[in-house]
What we know:
- The complex is a heterodimer of chains A (263) and B (251).
- Chain A has 263 residues and is an all-alpha fold.
- Chain A has ten helices and no strands.
- Chain A folds into two domains: 1-33; 38-261, Orthogonal Bundle (MetI-like fold).
- Chain A is elongated, with a radius of gyration of 22 Å.
- The chains are: A mainly alpha (263), B mainly alpha (251).
Amino acid sequence: MRALGDRFGSALAPLAVAAGLLVLWQIAALVIRSSYLPPMTEILPMFGALLWSGDIYPDLASSLARLFVGLGIGSALGIPLGLLSGRSRAVENFITPILAAFYPVPKAALMPIVMLWFGAGDLSKVLVIALTVSLPLVYHAQEGARTVEEKLIWSAQAVGCSGFRRLRRVILPAALPEILIGARVAIVIGVIVTITSEMIVRQSGLGNYLFTALDMGQYAMTYAVMLVIAVLGFLLDWIFETVRRRLAYWAPDRREADLAATS
Amino acid sequence: MKVAPTMLNFLKRSYSIILLLAGWEAAVRLGFAPPALLPAPSAVLVALVRDLGNSHFLSDLAVTLYRLFTGLIIAIGAGVLIGVGAAESRLGPLLLEPLIRVLAPLPKIVFFPAFLLLLGFGSSSRIMLVVIDAIFPALLAAYFGARAIDEKLIWSARAAGMSNAACQFRVVLPAALPGILTGVRIAIVIGCVVVFLSEMVTPGDGLGDALIRAAREFQTVQMFVPLVTISLLGFILDYAVVRVRKTLVNW
């Protein structure tokens, strides 16, 4: 019963905290009484209306489409590159300085430059998202491949498993728990860069919807859209974390400090 | 002559980036890429050096630096205080951990419109964005760093007659310092990125705004200059913390 209680508690605690934050908000809004800080009793109905009317769904869909295509391309490039660099010194020495130089660059800020080359459409945004999310994927795949138990590789070699097969059949599964941690960071960063790029180049998507509401002076709506994006970010992370725990149930759990490294 | 081997070592470690820049430069010079779309690295460097004497650019840089450092100081100071404080108290696992689990994965930039409404379009809203974005790495590092301390260290300090507050400063903080500095490194880079993006999203001033202004006039070289400046700034500050960490944490 203790374990069940703990699991229940760990699911309830964030909900309780979220509810507490909403109540604090309501109190603050009632005290300050400014149209710039509408109370939750105005924002939450707007949030419901937004989801009920379906007005926001086209933008939600275009944001999600960009995010997932970007994540797909980023994984297809980042994971193999990371695995390879975890097993080969030469590859590692080659990509490490490039990654280190690229790390402090504000990636969403590349939007105006990438748009010069690929136009103002979805391609530019997807490329910037893919580039951004590939960084944590490369890093964690590398870390995972580097720490694969050498005996596994020796036994694969001994039964005549070739280089590429070894990478796919031995190193990839062994590195999977670490790769999935990278994927979690990639999703969180991916949401941020998707929204930010839509704020910088305003055409469609949730970031655009948010600033359109702000520009039109619909403040309760602005906060409702903020809530939609926040809930989306939280839900995506929660869903992936549930899947990750299942896929990597045999690997030792790690603390959540990795998530701090996002922006 | 110790210079030659270090120089050689540096070349060996970073040859790929030099190769990349050389290839980029060659591609532009040989006409494979039109300079109007992709300026040569040398052109960007020349423009950057020239801009360092330009008062307009310097005022943008100063505004960005002011926002960045104010935000970082608040975020790191508050993050370390709260983190170390909560690690010792019972409130930590009860209140702080669920709070972190809700707030840390949120894309903090969505709160920027709220800061714009409440704090105006000047510096305060951008500083606030830096604070809420950079506080989490500092806070998490301090919290987990302080929690991982060997209890015996604290017991012996308390047994030797040290007060609780003194113990926090003289025992807990130094022991958690390596972890905290790692958190500070992440906070610094996040701060640089976020202050720049906030200046791009809403017009006004600062390096991010300089990029948007250049983009409107299709001044490709001038688009790269602010981007390279903020990236170099992040790189240098990050490196500075690595050096500080090496000298401070010599045990």
